[in-house]
Inverse folding.
């Protein structure tokens, strides 16, 4: 299997070189850039994951993430920032980031998180998986697609992972804490509102856009349950 390509967008040369060194030592192919415009060009050209500094010159990391998601590019994003306020983390996740590290950070921890995201998004090992069917909706784990009437609804990686967790436990009420641990990981530092935001997006993209009956029910004060048709 060819090495995964990681794009490291960081204007601090010392940090960029340190991250590149640790990722290459683990067998990744790494491309480094120092500004937001270059990050957009390289990400559009193809990468398996983007390590994205928030404070990039030219176009900042938030705008890079916003642009990539607006273009419906599903490449996973790990954001790096010197900001540690909760609102900054929430903004990053709402823009489509898959993980968030505050500076200073451990390069070894970053490598662990990169590997975890690649596994979670299905980019680590290309393999077939089950296809779950719920009326007009089918969820193809191997292809990483949710389809309605055969058409891919183009979910983002985290949205798909959340849908798989819910649908794979259809009929079972899952707590927000459980969903955070299973989809975002045990070391996620955000709050449970992240779950609510992503469930809202699933409802918009699947139930509302395709006029399907409700698929995800809110279990008030607890979490969510995927309904069997």
């Amino acid at each position: 299997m060819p090495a995964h390509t990681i794009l490291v967008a960081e204007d601090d040369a010392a940090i960029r070189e340190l991250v590149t060194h640790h990722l290459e030592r683990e067998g990744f192919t790494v491309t480094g850039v120092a500004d937001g415009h270059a990050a957009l060009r390289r990400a559009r050209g193809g990468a398996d994951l983007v390590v994205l500094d928030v404070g990039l010159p030219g176009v900042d990391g938030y705008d890079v993430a916003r642009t990539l998601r607006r273009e419906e590019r599903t490449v996973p994003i790990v954001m790096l920032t010197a900001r540690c306020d909760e609102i900054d983390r929430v903004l990053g996740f709402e823009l489509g980031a898959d993980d968030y590290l505050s500076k200073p950070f451990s390069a070894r921890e970053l490598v662990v998180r990169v590997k975890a995201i690649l596994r979670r998004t299905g980019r680590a090992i290309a393999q077939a998986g089950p296809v779950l069917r719920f009326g007009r909706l089918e969820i193809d784990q191997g292809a990483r697609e949710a389809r309605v009437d055969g058409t891919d609804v183009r979910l983002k990686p985290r949205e798909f992972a959340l849908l798989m967790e819910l649908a794979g436990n259809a009929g079972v009420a899952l707590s927000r804490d459980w969903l955070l641990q299973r989809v975002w990981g045990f070391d996620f530092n955000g709050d449970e509102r992240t779950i609510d935001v992503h469930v809202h997006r699933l409802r918009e993209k699947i139930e509302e856009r395709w006029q399907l009956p409700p698929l995800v029910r809110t279990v008030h004060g607890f979490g969510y349950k995927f309904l069997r048709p």
The chain is about 40% helix and 20% strand.
